[in-house]
Fold:
Amino acid sequence: MKGLTRVVILSNQTLLVEGVIARLQQYRDRVELIVVDIRQPDLLSHIARIQPAAIILDDNDMDISQAIPLDRLLQALPTLKVLCLDTQRLQTQVIRCEQYWVTEVRDLLDLVEPSSPDPSQQPFMIEK
Structure:
């Protein structure tokens, strides 16, 4: 059996986080969810110790971008995938070496899991 994919949800105690957790719980046989409060001391080091495959955050929450700049996060964890949930546009931006826009939870898991298939074979809009 394949190991669980570790996913950190960066939280500022928003309802969005609760919704994400509720949706991803149905995939608990595939992902290990870890909620990290953005007020955690030494946030970057804390996340680096967890070694997640992906981080999910609220793209509209300015406190998160101030607490941990995206460039520092990707520098510390170069293989990390960052999933920016945008509730205003009802979509998710996935940041890794390329950008992918997805709308379904299943699609997110395909991008997050390390053994994901070639993204060009998936029904995603790819922006380069």
Confidence is low (pLDDT under 50) at residues 119-128. The beta strands are 5-11, 31-37, 54-58, 81-86, 91-95, 99-102, 125-127.
